[in-house]
Design a protein that fits this description.
Blueprint (H helix, E strand, L loop, with lengths): L2 H43 L19 E10 L6 E8 L13 E9 L6 E9 L9 E6 L14 H9 L5 E8 L11 E6 L3 H13 L6 E7 L8 H10 L3 E7 L14 E2 L4 H7 L6 E6 L1 H14 L6 E5 L25 E5 L4 E5 L6 H7 L17 E6 L2 E3 L11 E3 L3 E3 L3 E3 L2
Parallel strand pairs: 7-8, 7-11, 8-9, 9-10, 11-12, 13-19
Antiparallel strand pairs: 1-2, 1-6, 2-5, 3-4, 3-6, 13-14, 15-17, 15-19, 16-18
Length: 423
């Protein structure tokens, strides 16, 4: 055998060995992919191993309960967010709640426009885990918006910051809400913008307090360190728990803010950041923040291929997020179309055709320039309750509270036929 033939033989043997190794590697990756695909299906079907997070059965009380403010503390350097620790005045201990739920407060407040007193309802997320002996809500001071002009600052948030002190008594309904962390082993991604961190703190503290090995990511977006809520607490959790990853984004860092020390990345949270950071795993996403954050992220996550049952979100104020492949749902009765339904707002003297484009009557009214008081926007607080003068509504989900006879909750209802509302 010549030297050339020997060299070719050796080369062929090496190529053969490389091919065998490549096939083995591909086979192993293919098996891993099939296993992961099966796990994704099992997550959706609820067939995962026994959950590590205990799904509590939340308790409740009827009507309003007196809660005393036992501690008041600001949570960021600019003092835009303040936490209030609440304990029961009397009666049984505070019941458990699901991480991510909120408290509904009621106040006797003076209407700035008319000077008349009326009941005002506001909902604020619980920002700590259950079974602590207290409830905690962390409230952002809402300043007057720059656009449109001449709008007042947030009445109740400023009241909390300026008037509520330790020892004061507040009145609240039991915890409620449909945005909460579900019991599972699945890895989770929490995404918060601004004060949207509050329900995420409840979820995060719940999982880590149980010493679960569940993988958990927190993407938290704020302008800079002056607005960064509970910075030392979050960083301490990230140091202590190997399964927790903290990714803070500053959109407008201060000159003194140091990347890699004060924050992880400059800019806003977007789908590109998520795709570059997260591995290929069946994550469950929980998103809370302003409407702009949800409008950019939720459709992008859907387009990324994340199963819709894995994506949960809650926005501040009006937010109707439509995914690319979704079609508007009509609430028209059988045999008719949405176009022959009209909604009349008797106080506003407006009759408007219901096209079925809005998620509920509350958003339909707001789009039509009819402002209606609202709170939770999930059928839990009763703020958007309105009297039905004529017609019927369909509820998209059962209300958490019973509306008064002849009334409906606009945030979770759609017209069943021609409808007249006292609004």
């Amino acid at each position: 055998m010549s030297v050339l033939e020997l060299s070719l033989f050796i080369a062929l043997v090496l190529l053969g060995q490389i091919a065998i190794v490549a096939i083995i590697i591909f086979y192993r990756h293919w098996r891993t992919y099939l296993k992961l695909k099966a796990n994704v299906k099992s997550f959706g079907d609820g067939l995962l191993d026994e959950p590590t997070m205990q799904q509590v059965k939340p308790g409740s009380w009827q009507g309003l309960r007196e809660l005393r403010v036992v501690r008041k503390i600001y949570e960021n350097p600019c003092k835009s967010i303040c936490s209030f620790y609440l304990a029961p005045v009397d009666g049984p201990p505070l019941p458990d709640f699901l991480p991510g739920q909120f408290l509904t407060f009621q106040f006797d407040a003076k209407d700035p426009a008319t000077g008349e007193h009326k009941n005002v309802t506001r909902c604020y997320s619980l920002s700590d885990r259950s079974n602590t002996g207290y409830y905690r809500v962390s409230i952002k001071r809402e300043l007057a918006p720059s656009t449109p002009p001449n709008l007042p600052p947030g009445q109740i948030s400023n009241y909390f910051h300026d008037k509520v002190s330790e020892g004061d008594i507040l009145y609240a309904r039991a915890p409620g809400g449909n945005f909460f962390l579900e019991a599972s082993n699945a890895p989770i991604v929490l995404i918060a913008g601004g004060v949207g961190i509050t329900p995420m703190l409840s979820m995060l503290n719940t999982v880590l307090q149980e010493e679960s090995l569940r993988e958990i990511w927190l993407f938290y977006g704020v302008r800079n360190s002056s607005e960064h809520v509970m910075k030392s607490h979050l960083e301490a959790l990230a140091r202590k728990h190997r399964n927790f990853r903290l990714c803070t984004c500053y959109s407008r860092p201060l000159p003194s803010d140091v990347i890699g020390v004060d924050y992880w990345q400059q800019g806003r949270i977007n789908i590109g950041l998520l795709r570059l950071t997260l591995s290929f795993r069946p994550y469950h996403f929980y998103i809370c923040g302003p409407t702009a954050l949800l409008e950019s992220l939720v459709p992008a996550i859907d387009k990324w291929g994340v199963p819709r049952q894995f994506v949960h979100y809650e926005a501040f104020g009006p937010a109707s997020i439509r995914l690319p492949s979704e079609k508007p749902k009509s609430a028209a009765p059988q045999g008719s179309t949405a176009k022959n339904i009209f909604v009349t707002f008797s106080k506003s003297k407006k009759t408007i055709a219901w096209e079925g484009d809005e998620a509920n009557i509350l958003e339909f009214a707001e789009k039509s320039g009819i402002m209606i008081d609202s709170g939770c926007r999930s059928g839990s607080c009763g703020t958007c309750q309105v009297k039905i003068e004529e017609g019927e509504v369909d509820y998209m989900q059962p209300p958490d509270i019973d509306p008064e006879p002849g009334h409906c909750l606009l945030c979770i209802s759609r017209p069943k036929c021609n409808l007249t509302l006292m609004a």
